[in-house]
Amino acid sequence: MSIIRPRLNDFHRIPVTQEDVDFAIPFIDEDIPLYVDPFLLWKSPSQQDNSLHLTITNSFNFLGSLITAGNEKQAIEILIRASECNEVGLGNSKTKTGKKIGEKLARSVLSVFKHIPQLGKVGFSHFEEIQLLVDSFSKDRVSDIACNYLQSFLIDFTIEQSEKHGIPIEKVILENVYDVRSNKFNSEKTYLPINPNTSSPILFVPKRWLKFSPWINPDDYFDNYYVKNIHKEGDEFPNRVRLLNFNRKNYDIVQTYTKIKEKQIEQCKNDPLFNQIPITSAKGKLATIIKLPTGKTENADRKYEDNVCQLMASLVYPHLDFAAEQSRTDSGVLIRDLVFYNNRSLDFLKEIYEAYDCRQIVMELKNVEELTRDHIFQLNRYLNDQFGRFGIIITRKAPLSKIFKNTIDLWSGQRRCILILDDSDLSMMTQVFESKQRYPIEVIKKKYIEFIRACPS
């Protein structure tokens, strides 16, 4: 049975949530939209992370020593080899396969060791500064280079986490394992999880290293440092290429910016794959939902769906990981869904997994005055495809008794379970979210227990 945005643990039917594990759970068909930020290793209280940051920095600066010694060809070969790390699956690729940089960009990167005296003498303290000096060198390259230099550590980390969580591993060959003693990339045979679609090896990355954008990055440099401290009023703002040229000629300014970022160390934190909205935002979205009219007047249906999407994803976290928000058409009717991974993190989630083959939970959104049999049957038809035999409709008002009976009849005849949540249930879940005494998902559990009690024995 196929599912939406499958992850490695879903394929192996391993019941863990993203909150449960120390690594970012890899998707099978696409990359994780995060990047390794070397600055997080530099600021970490862990001496191991600090040592790994030094490994990254020294390995990158070794390229500078090769340039100084006249070994440009060797430096180019190493940099190109370091520039892509498909095994970690980080970034925005939809194919799980990226491209290495070309020789032209490699030469441009390495030229900074020739043309910036400070780098020629002592090298970088934070090699992410290269984003401020060279065009077309972005955060994905910073992340991939860091990962390639740390593959030896990532192998051990991945094996450890696989054993801890029961993730199968197989014999593989990695082509880009960096040896810090010889300063060379070598191939290595080891055991790792593999992508079930491509049989390519997978490396896990600690969640504590990941951000959407590096702490040192071009946008932050321009908006929060250059504009405020360097740009003169009345002067034309430089385009990207002119700004990079300015930075190379005035590297001391880049160093000053980096020192400021080091002093702001406490503000630098990793980005989780999902963030719950604050309680005040949750209450605000609930208030908006309750005030909205039913139907499509003044785009009310879209506003309802947008607010429910954001609210519900936070209310059920961390017990349900958000998988996708999608639209589909059923007999000409556009339907908005929320899809969650069922990681069996609670007893009733385990029960619906086993009783209804529910690997993912689909929640269908209906901003209607009155729920009808057609709405029930629309979701029921959809459940036949890939979600198992359990689903939830989120609507405005409690269903009429004859509509509730339709859901009971579906259970009796086909062993399908469709729960119906309304505005009062969302209000209860938000109150529980605010009180922090229990979990909001327990409201859904209560609905499920009520439903089962109403079913014929």
Structural notes for this entry:
By secondary structure, the chain is of the alpha/beta class. The chain has two domains: 8-267, no CATH class; 279-454, Restriction Endonuclease (3-Layer(aba) Sandwich), CATH 3.40.91.30. 47% of the residues lie in helices and 14% in strands. The protein is built from 18 helices and nine strands. It has helices spanning 8-11, 38-43, 47-68, 72-82, 103-115, 117-122, 139-149, 151-165, 218-230, 240-249, 251-263, 279-291, 300-315, 347-356, 373-383, 401-414, 423-435, 441-454, and strands at residues 35-36, 170-179, 184-192, 210-211, 320-330, 333-342, 360-366, 390-395, 417-421. It has a five-stranded mixed beta sheet, sandwiched between helices. α4 crosses α5 (103-115) and α10 (240-249) packs across α11 (251-263). The chain is elongated. The protein starts with 7 loop residues before the first helix and ends with a helix.
- The figure for the number of domains is 2
Q: Helix content range of the residues, please?
A: 40-55%
The gross shape turns out to be elongated
The number of helices is 18
Strand count, sense and closure of the main sheet? 5 strands, mixed
- How do the helices and strands follow one another from N- to C-terminus? HEHHHHHHHEEEHHHHHEEHEHEHEHH
User: What percentage of amino acids are in beta strands?
Assistant: 5-15%
> Compute the gyration radius: what is it?
26 Å
Question: Given the helix and strand composition, which structural class is it?
Answer: alpha/beta
Low-confidence stretches: none
Mean pLDDT: 94
Q: List the strand order in the largest sheet.
A: 5-6-7-8-9
Number of strands: 9
Distance between the termini: 29 Å
